[in-house]
Amino acid sequence: MSTISRILDYNNTFVGQKEYQEFHTTKYPDKKLVILTCMDTRLLELLPKAMGLRNGDAKIIKNAGAVISHPFGSIMRSILVAIYELKAEEVCVIGHHGCGMVGLQSSSILEAAKKNGVSEERIDTLSNAGIDLSTWLTGFQCVAESVTNSVHLIKNHPLMPDQIAVHGMVIHPETGKLDLVVDGYASVNSENNEILSR
Ligand SMILES: [Zn+2]
């Protein structure tokens, strides 16, 4: 039986027995929080549980490494939608120790692509079209630094309102321990003090 068949079978029972009832909530995040984190499988249940989050508490955006590659890409758009359309008031970027994006080299992905039948010619065509595959497919060296960079990108985005606190954290993928690397309240408070002192 395929994975999808098993999922659909399970789903039949889940819906039939009304197991969804305990998850009822709305599309607005109760804790007014939007989280950008990594797609790592270890964080699937651990991250919300370690943060005390339940269904309906937060908007969670995931990708490899919790990275924003482009200020006008889909991750940044999702954060803006969460704030302007879904009433989120704080943003939290959460990287994790042992992330697969640490030290990731574009060459290893491109080698794997070639082994899987993607021709060198196709890769060259992309490069010739001006697509910088080496930057796009490269990870980062330090998770705390990557989180800090993403926090700054969000905080300084031209469409981001000043009063939104943007925090940075690193989570341990086994214990769920969170370390705060950027306290978003600090910059919001200093901006408020600046406004008051004018
Ligand atoms: Zn990761």
TrEMBL record:
<dbReference type="InterPro" id="IPR001765">
    <property type="entry name" value="Carbonic_anhydrase"/>
</dbReference>
<protein>
    <recommendedName>
        <fullName>carbonic anhydrase</fullName>
        <ecNumber>4.2.1.1</ecNumber>
    </recommendedName>
</protein>
<keyword id="KW-0479">Metal-binding</keyword>
<dbReference type="InterPro" id="IPR036874">
    <property type="entry name" value="Carbonic_anhydrase_sf"/>
</dbReference>
<keyword id="KW-0862">Zinc</keyword>
<dbReference type="Pfam" id="PF00484">
    <property type="entry name" value="Pro_CA"/>
</dbReference>
<comment type="similarity">
    <text>Belongs to the beta-class carbonic anhydrase family.</text>
</comment>
